[in-house]
Write a structure and sequence with these properties.
The chain has about 140 residues and is mainly alpha-helical. The chain is built from 6 helices and 2 strands; from the N terminus they run H-E-E-H-H-H-H-H. The chain has helices at about 1-15, 40-50, 55-70, 75-95, 100-120, 125-135; strands at about 25, 35-40. It has a two-stranded antiparallel sheet. Helix 1 (about 1-15) packs across helix 3 (about 55-70), helix 1 packs antiparallel against helix 4 and helix 3 (about 55-70) packs antiparallel against helix 4. The longest helix has 22 residues, at about 100-120. It is flat. The N and C termini lie far apart (about 40 Å).
Length: about 140
Amino acid sequence: MAAFMGAIAVADIVKTTLGPKGMDKILQPLTEQGKVTFTNDGATILKSIPIENPAAKIIIDTSKTQDEEVGDGTTSVAVFAGELLREAQKLVNAAMHPMTIIRGWRKAVKVARQVLEDSAIDNSADPEKFRDDLFNIA
C-alpha cells in the first residue's frame, strides 16, 4: 500500500499543472547553491523530486522516457499512471488479487489497440487527402 501512496502522490503533484488553469510550482533546491524555480512543466518538476519509493520512481522514469521519445506528454503520462494505480488500489482494497488486475489491464490494452487500428484511416497514398489530414491535425 505504501507503493501505491508514493506513486499516487507523485501523480497528484503534477496533476495541478495541467489545463488552462494549471498552476505553477515553486521548486526550492535542497542546497543553498541552487536557485528557486517557478514552473508548470511536469518534466522539470518530476526531475527535481528526490524519491525513494520504487513505484514513484517508475512513474518518474516513465515520464522521462516519454520526454526523450516524444518530447511532450510527460505530465499526462504521470497522471494517467497515477490514476491507474489509484483504481488498482481500490480493487486491491476490495480483495482483488493484483494479478487479476494486471490481466484486466492487458486485455484492455488489446481491446483499445484493436479499436484504434480499426478506426484508423491511411491516406498516405493520396497526397491531397494526406495534406488535408495534416491541416486538420494541426
